């Protein structure tokens, strides 16, 4: 796959929102170790407006990684894609037929895609199992999402999938921008506000990927992101109507102030899915995102998990205390919680008078256990039982089931 030299990323180098120069020269870095010392791949969630070039970029990333001998693991979550220029390891279309879903549930195209994604989500634990199984052998997991961005970003299933992936593996969001279609300040701002809302919703490391820079270089975007006044000037300039009146209202101006904060938290790269420009910068940004995940997201995840466990434990304790109170017992008994049953019904019926097993009884019990094990040997699953996926077979079945 031909890879061209990357487009220099404009003058806007002061802001964190620009591509890091040092990283720009690096090749696709190796996926790093997790806190447990095991190698973990990084998951790249490719999200963007319809037609921004997500699928084409997936193909480009795939071929770039193949050329680096780091073939990725690929998930396609777009049930409506008709032509996929790469082959996915797990493809939602193998599991759900969205056209059939539309017919059977009397839905329009968006409802069909949404329902297909919902159905797929009910099996996502299995999908995650397949991904985790391959975690040791791949460096990148790439995820293509449905064309209609809101189906993934605002649906319950999109959130469940994102959270499930992000709590299992280092994950970054690559937000794809159709650069030639965002040259007007108003469109640019709308797109950035959308990106901002996704960042705050997912809280994951975020990369703004200006795609199609073979058609329109993204320098203007970097300039607007780095210099807030430049953007306001452009807004004022292009917002004038034929009488010279500025119809851009103050709301737009204040919104652009909000965005200034957002730009500080993200990195931006320019790529062309068509020509392959900017691949190195892209993977350098992914690597930074992975580090950010380890530094910020994972500790927060651990904290939330501990908080949740503590809450569950407290609820259990409260429940037990309530039950004890209802039973008229002040405190939970220390030993056998089920109280003083007649001796022949008690679990300790094997004990001798001194409170311990007699030698004969102990031997009897051991023999009983061995016989039990012989009667019910554990059966190791055969390879054929293990559900394979990814174009190899269709272990998860198909929805709706063929009539
Ligand atoms: N010139 C140019 N065209 C591109 C580039 N990337 C994608 N395209 C074109 O943009 C169009 C949309 O590309 P897709 O990859 O289908 O976009 P998508 O975001 O996956 O589209 P949906 O999934 O339908 O939302 C196609 O015609 C692509 O050929 C690029 O870097 N440069
Ligand atoms: Mg697509």
How are the elements arranged and paired?
Blueprint: H1 21-24, E1 42-48, H2 54-67, E2 73-76, E3 90-91, H3 92-95, H4 98-105, H5 109-121, H6 124-133, E4 140-144, H7 149-153, H8 156-166, E5 171-178, H9 185-202, E6 206-211, H10 219-226, H11 228-238, H12 250-264, E7 267-270, H13 279-326, H14 359-375
Parallel strand pairs: 1-4, 1-5, 2-3, 2-4, 5-6, 6-7
EC number: 3.6.5.-
Region (Disordered): 1-37, 327-403
Biased composition (Polar residues): 1-16
Task: Give an account of the 3D structure.
The chain has 403 residues and is an alpha/beta fold. It is built from 14 helices and seven strands. The chain has helices at residues 21-24, 54-67, 92-95, 98-105, 109-121, 124-133, 149-153, 156-166, 185-202, 219-226, 228-238, 250-264, 279-326, 359-375; strands at residues 42-48, 73-76, 90-91, 140-144, 171-178, 206-211, 267-270. The protein has a seven-stranded parallel beta sheet, sandwiched between helices. Helix 9 packs across helix 12. It is globular, with a radius of gyration of 28 Å. It starts with 20 loop residues before the first helix and ends in a 28-residue tail after the last helix. The protein binds guanosine-5'-triphosphate (GTP) and magnesium ion (MG). Magnesium ion binds next to helix 2. Magnesium ion binds at residues 54-55, 78, 81, 147. Binds to RNA polymerase II.
Could you give a quick summary of the protein structure above?
The protein is an alpha/beta fold and 403 residues long. 46% of the residues lie in helices and 9% in strands. The chain contains 14 helices and seven strands.
């Amino acid at each position: 796959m031909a890879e061209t030299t990357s487009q220099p990323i404009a003058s806007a180098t002061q802001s964190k929102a620009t591509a890091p120069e040092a990283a720009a020269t690096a090749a696709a870095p190796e996926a790093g170790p997790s806190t447990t010392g095991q190698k973990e791949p990084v998951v790249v969630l490719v999200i963007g407006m319809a037609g921004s070039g997500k699928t084409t970029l997936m193909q480009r990333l795939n071929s770039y990684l193949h050329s680096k001998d780091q073939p990725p693991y690929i998930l396609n979550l777009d049930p409506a894609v008709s032509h996929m220029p790469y082959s996915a390891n797990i493809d939602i279309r193998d599991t759900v037929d969205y056209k059939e879903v539309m017919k059977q549930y009397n839905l329009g195209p968006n409802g069909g895609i949404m329902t297909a994604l919902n159905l797929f989500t009910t099996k996502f634990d299995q999908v995650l199992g397949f991904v985790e199984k391959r975690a040791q052998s791949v460096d990148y997991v790439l995820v293509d999402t449905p064309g209609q961005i809101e189906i993934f970003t605002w649906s319950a299933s999109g959130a469940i999938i994102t959270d499930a992936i992000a709590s299992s593996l280092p994950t970054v969001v690559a937000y794809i921008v159709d650069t030639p279609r965002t040259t007007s300040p108003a469109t640019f701002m709308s797109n950035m506000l959308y990106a901002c809302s996704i960042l705050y919703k997912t809280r994951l490391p975020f990369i703004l990927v200006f795609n199609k820079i073979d058609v329109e270089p993204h320098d203007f975007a970097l300039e607007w992101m780095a210099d807030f006044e430049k953007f306001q000037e452009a807004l004022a300039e292009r917002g004038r109507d034929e009488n010279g009146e500025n119809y851009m209202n103050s709301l737009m101006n204040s919104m652009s102030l909000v965005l200034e904060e957002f730009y500080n938290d993200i990195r931006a790269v320019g790529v062309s899915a068509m020509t392959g420009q900017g691949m190195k910068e892209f993977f350098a940004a992914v690597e930074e995102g992975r580090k950010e995940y380890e530094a910020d997201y994972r500790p927060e995840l651990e904290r939330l998990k501990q908080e949740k466990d503590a809450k569950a434990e407290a609820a259990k304790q409260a429940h037990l205390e309530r039950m004890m109170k209802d039973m008229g017992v002040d405190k939970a008994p220390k030993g056998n919680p089920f109280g003083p049953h007649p001796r022949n019904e008690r679990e300790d019926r094997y004990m001798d008078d001194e409170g311990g097993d007699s030698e004969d009884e102990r031997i009897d019990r051991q023999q009983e256990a061995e016989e039990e094990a012989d009667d019910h040997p554990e059966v190791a699953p055969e390879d054929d039982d293990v559900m394979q996926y990814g174009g190899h077979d269709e272990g998860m079945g198909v929805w709706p089931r063929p009539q």
